[in-house]
Amino acid sequence: MKKLFYGLLLLTSLQTQAQENITFQKPSTEILALADYVRPPQLKISGDKNWMLFTFRPTYKSLAELGQEEMKLAGLRINPKTYMESSTLFYDKITLKKIDQNLEYTDFAGMPENAALSNFVFSPDNKYLAFSNSNDSGTALFVVDLATRNVKQLTNYNLNGTMTAPFQWLRNSSGLMITSLPQDRPALLDPSKDLPQGPVVSTSDGKVSQLRTYQDLLKSPLDETNFETLAQSNLQLVDLNGKISSFKDKAIYTGISFSPSGEYVMVSTITKPYSYVVPLSYFPQKVHIYDRTGKEITLVNETPLTEVMPKGFSSTRSGKRAWHWRSDQPATLAYVEALDGGDANKEAEFRDALYTLSYPFKGAGKLIFKTKDRYAGVVWGNEKYALVHSQWYDTRNRKTFVVNPSTGESKLLHDRNSQDVYNDPGDVYTERNSLGTYSMYIDKDKVLFVGKGFTKDGEFPFVDELNLQSLKKKRMYTAAASALQERITQIVNPKTGDLLISLQSASIYPNYYMKNMKSGKQTTLTALENPFKSLEKVHKEILNYKRNDGVELSGTLYLPAGYDFNKKEKLPLLMWAYPREYKDKHTAGQHTANPKEFTFPSYGSFIYWVSKGYAVLDNAAFPIVGEGTKEPNDTFIEQLVANAEAAIDAVDQLGYIDRKKVAVGGHSYGAFMTAHLLSNSKLFAAGIARSGAYNRTLTPFGFQSEQRNFWDDPALYMTMSPFVSADRMKTPLLLIHGGADNNPGTFTLQTERYFQALKNLGAPVRMVILPREAHGYVAKENIFHLLWEQDQFLQKYLKN
């Protein structure tokens, strides 16, 4: 009887502890001092490189902002008041600074009150700055005269930014093209009051397809109607005095692009039928060309509804795609067409072909170049030179060709593993040409490449000169080794050698300088202060170590300020990581970690806890390698455990940690990793998994970098599902997820079902669902509470 009583008491206790009614909490003083900071501004440079625009926004959104009305349709999340995507970041302040003068402008006459600014775009002549402002009435267009700093409102609060940017400049800077709300748009329909007229029916024609899981899709005819109400716009022109004229009537516009000459405009629209199984990017599309008056020149392309896709990351849709204007000519279209039907599984000598099409934009295009792999972009230069890129996912191969657009002649420039960061040649420098668009800067057959300069010994950004005739390279500049890390933001003047650079260290916030790469002369442009003073004396170093199979690994180790290296107190260790797939051990062993990179703590790591006496190994390398015919995921769990063991061994051998007090954490695929490590090893005392996917049968047509579907290899999907090994989970786990996660594959349901399994199997687990958050967290209340939850959890299972 006594045993029964205590059993019932224990059952009651468990039931009362299963659900907590808890209000939002704030983390401890040490963590709050780092989390509650003022976000430094972001920087944007004008096209003529004379102006620096600084944009300021609140450090976090509020929970109230996340709770604003939202429509989830066709893969979008739209605010029906502002007619902008719900995830849009709004800025409340701007400042402007002349690069060649020590003058900063902070006052702008006519700036809207309670500003919520976005879409900052300098005019082609660099005399104006356009931006949008949003409120509960909608979104309006404003323009700043850079000479006078006067702000003028050009439209009412009736712009539509749901499908594309709500405005763009005309090439001659005389005005802008806007997407405005139709005056006859109907009211949005209330789904709760909809009386269905029939069932929702979807069919398949029997073709094999490989489409992933998607969120926020259309589900009913009512959704279709609301989607049209939100997505349809009129195309209009507005001059700098606010005079508006019509260009095209309402449609669902997804792309607007002026020819470099400004004489023509390419307009993409979505048409019916819509789909209930794929988002709007797969809906039927038409591409029209109009002249500057709005007269239609031609319909250049029609794309049908795409609900069937070939398997493989190197597959693409059939037909013409990647339509764009050739940037080095006044009005020449360019496009790509798959020669293998878009199916990477078919044998084909050539996969894609690049074409150009001149006025009147009809008939067959001119063949420029065929690629043996999948087309991956083009950088136009002039009538003699263009750079064409191709890639193939299965081998991670990337090639670059120097192509003569006039003759079709080509030379192979680069043939490399796309993940080989130590041999990355950088990006070719582009500059505004006489048409006002960006093309390769070419001087006597020579171009410039700007590279990040990652090496085994550190990061040394560089500028190379390449002769397009001989393909010989000459190193023009390499950043010297110093206590500060230099990074090249852009070339300001290729003839004089002026560069815009940033300098930073672990404790010195990145600031901008003008530097001449010939003389070394340097001029300070900004003086932004470190917002995280309490981390200035934290010890930071890059650990390099090896896995048991010889793969080289690395991680950034942080130790508390004042740590006594002679005494070597044994600290609890927190490890944050994210697995990445590779096709060879050499590239898997490369790293970009840098001890001179500024330490910027965020909720996306464990760095906060170095202020509370923990050792932190951040961005610990977790490569998953599959060489030759083997796929990385064939030995996923074994490699995860080997990575973790190597990391713990490396820190332990230095004498810094108590290896019985190690916790691991990760977000998204890192959460997936964490769950596996706790179920398949005894290396950790606790784990924190945020916004992960735990049942791979719910992502049956591939996930992360896995191309095989569930039916190709059911055993793989089962083995790689932490849900299946939930009965082996004995280590305390904190599960966190956004309540409105819209990332394909990591729906909130994944955590809810995994928690239910762990709970019923008796695992020590706690689940926290952050209200209204998507895949990344943005609300101040949620982030502070997240930090509190993690702090309490780590205190309980590591410190105590």
Descriptive report:
By secondary structure, the chain is mainly β. Helix content is 14%, strand content 35%. It has an eight-stranded mixed beta sheet, with helices on both faces. Strands 12-13-14-15-16-17-18 form a seven-stranded antiparallel beta sheet, with helices on one face. A hairpin with a 5-residue loop joins strand 28 and strand 29 (438-440). Helix 6 (636-653) packs across helix 7 (669-680). The model is unreliable at 1-17 (pLDDT under 50).
Structure characteristics:
800 residues; mainly beta; 8-stranded mixed β-sheet; 7-stranded antiparallel β-sheet; 14% helix; globular
* Approximate strand percentage: 35-45%
Largest sheet: 8 strands, mixed
Report the count of strand segments: 46
Average pLDDT value? 94
- C-alpha Rg (nearest Å): 28 Å
Short description:
The protein has 800 residues and is mainly beta. Strands 39-40-42-41-43-44-45-46 form an eight-stranded mixed sheet, sandwiched between helices. It has a seven-stranded antiparallel sheet with strand order 12-13-14-15-16-17-18, covered by helices on one side. The chain has a four-stranded antiparallel sheet with strand order 1-2-6-7, with no helix packed on it. The longest helix is centred in the last third of the chain and has 20 residues, at 780-799.
Task: List the SSEs and their pairings.
Blueprint: H1 2-18, H2 29-35, E1 42-45, E2 51-56, H3 63-66, E3 71-73, E4 76-79, E5 84-85, E6 93-98, E7 104-105, E8 117-122, E9 128-135, E10 138-145, E11 150-153, E12 167-169, E13 175-180, H4 221-231, E14 233-239, E15 244-258, E16 264-270, E17 285-291, E18 296-303, E19 320-325, E20 332-338, E21 352-358, E22 366-371, E23 374-380, E24 386-392, E25 397-403, E26 410-417, E27 427-428, E28 430-432, E29 438-440, E30 446-451, E31 454-455, E32 458-459, E33 462-467, E34 473-478, E35 485-493, E36 498-504, E37 511-516, E38 522-524, E39 539-546, E40 552-559, E41 571-582, H5 585-588, E42 615-625, H6 636-653, E43 657-667, H7 669-680, E44 686-690, H8 714-719, E45 733-738, H9 748-760, E46 765-770, H10 780-799
Parallel strand pairs: 41-42, 41-43, 43-44, 44-45, 45-46
Antiparallel strand pairs: 1-2, 2-6, 3-4, 4-5, 6-7, 8-9, 9-10, 10-11, 12-13, 13-14, 14-15, 15-16, 16-17, 17-18, 19-20, 20-21, 21-22, 23-24, 24-25, 25-26, 27-30, 28-29, 30-33, 31-32, 33-34, 35-36, 36-37, 37-38, 39-40, 40-42
